[in-house]
Amino acid sequence: MGALTGIRVLDLSRVLAGPWCSQILADLGADVIKIERVGAGDDTRAWGPPYMKSPSGEETSEASYYQSSNRNKRSVAVDISCAEGQEIVRALAAESDVFIENFKAGSLKKYGLDYEALSEVNPRLVYCSITGFGQTGPRAREPGYDFIVQGTGGLMSITGERDDLPGGGPQKVGVAVADVMTGLYSVIAIQAALLAREKIGKGQYCDMALLDVQVAALGNQSQNYLSTGVSPGRYGNAHANIVPYNVFRAVDQDFIIACGNDHQFIALCNAIGLPEFPLDPRFSKNEDRVRNRADVTRILSDHFKQDKAKVWVDKIYSVGVPVGLINDIAGALAEPQVEARGMVVNIPHCMNPDFKMVGSPIKLSATPVEYTRPAPLLGEDTDVVLSEFIGISSEQLSILKSKRVIG
């Protein structure tokens, strides 16, 4: 019994932001029906290599990208460009609680699958549109891509090394964070709308935009600008408002120190053998260290070249200052804490019974996340869903398949 058991989601989204949203809803127990193109499916089905491997180590046809954001869903292949396909989606929407789509603004109106049309069929429907720039404004009709939004939304201007350092310049984040964050915010919006439905008796429209989310997620950096009128620059791995908060190089490898306050700075300096450092008035308070960032960084960098990273990490960890080595993804997934938290899960797949993926971070005591199925094969559930929910007979299913309306 999941937290969202009993909620049916009709998901017409593709790629990442929308599927990320619907996967979270599915993890929480919602019945997510993923509508995909006949013969092709979600764009990310073709985004490989890498592909999932079979037990013998051979590549299957299932792209890892698609697998990452579509577990716990059912796949129904429908051609929404034809009248019969549109009628199938409308019939499913009439039996659903949530409708998710990420087509360009206004694109679904010509198919009769826009909010106005579907809310007449089902007034309690929560309809969530996810686009690059939203439903209004001068860029509303443009397609939106995470990379473009990271640039337009200011994130790349504060990500990467300074221009005066080797490799300096704007840099995108290594994960499509605008997509992922928009998926998360969309989950919040949908759940809020479902709660509101119990109060007002009807569904509503959720207009979610990658650019809105990216701007909102600038956090303290945008507020720094609003307070000063000066756009923050790039600090590489350093922090705009806290020093020392950076990557440092030891004899053998890099490690991270995240020193959050003056007490931690004193503890840090005592642990590494620099007890006099906090007594210098240039460095005693965080605001002083921010102003004298270059000197603090130089002194610590020179000091850490005297020993191995593990030695420094152990000393600093022992006094309660946040510190850590830098893992690659293999190392991160092998971390004992990650293993203890159950963050790598086995979800048997018909092509690989030992298939593994990263699990949900949501831990609920009474209604825990369950992993009922891996990402579906294209059209795997078409017959079951259409017969169960809208009563299409086996004979009608055969006719619709012969006409390529469904797959």
From TrEMBL:
Keyword Transferase in record: yes
Could you tell me what this protein is called? CoA-transferase
The protein's UniProt keywords, in alphabetical order, are:
Transferase
Q: Which species does this protein come from? A: Halotalea alkalilenta
Transmembrane domains' residue ranges: none
Signal sequence residues: none
Statement: the UniProt record of this protein carries the keyword Transit peptide: no
Would you say which domain of life the source belongs to?
A: Bacteria
Q: Where is this region: Disordered?
A: 46-68
One matching Pfam family is: CoA_transf_3
Gene Ontology molecular functions: CoA-transferase activity
